[in-house]
């Protein structure tokens, strides 16, 4: 009887092990593939306290705009399909997005990926291969190298137009010491466009970003960047962005001086100083320099000849018109519109002669023929 009980216990243990092994094998074989995972329902996020549904949706869109990379022509990606080396790895899985925004893949054929994030492209490829393979694939997509960023700069910059910027490599902080890619910033692109003009409104810059749901409009204030150090205002740009810098209605002189020291302003500007100064001609000044700086850069007034109380300021406007005005000079004044105005590139400062110099030059003009006659008579011995 004891021997019979032991035999029954042994058979029961073997049966339990077999059942457990079968359950594990079934669970392992029914692992949900990536394509099915993406079809699972996702709980919809609810607005937080004090936030409406629209505000929450706008916040979610902003996070999307600042987040995932969107594929486009020129991107190089790597596709890895688990246990299918013929379509995977550095030799068989590296592909470049063609100019029409598609990938040409073995077995799957042509797949459109332009405008998709890496996650969306991964889902689309998994779905495509799922109908072609015997079982759903375990598939991953990795970005190997990003295409150059092409942006448009419009408005108050010195050289508006389209600019193509290569992504700069940056060293990762990981122990492996790998390298990543850094998006170009708003100030970097403005520098490429020659810097802002003196009429630029840097407090309300718009960045228009194309998205599949429609264009997003981001706003940035470079004034907050230079005054408070808010680095979030130096927006990271994406391929296809359009930067619009509006024209300012009015800029205070003290603001112009502060903006001139920023790296997105032109470093220098040419100004002409002519007339009764020590070194008349073209002078190179810092951006947003004042009238007093121009006079001093030209060596200052000629004391015996210059009219130091007033000067003439001539300005060529962008529309081709010319403005000329008389400015009362005060070398002790700070930047202001009345006695020490901010200059613009290619302004002309004219320093007139004083009364004594004008009278002396007029008398010399009348006496010049007699002086020449006296010199001739001396040569003849008279």
TrEMBL record:
Keywords: Signal. This is Polysaccharide transporter. Residues 68-143 form the Polysaccharide export protein N-terminal domain. GO terms for molecular function: polysaccharide transmembrane transporter activity. Residues 185-214, 271-322 form the Soluble ligand binding domain. Gene3D superfamilies: Outer membrane lipoprotein wza domain like. InterPro entries: Poly_export, Poly_export_N, Soluble_ligand-bd.
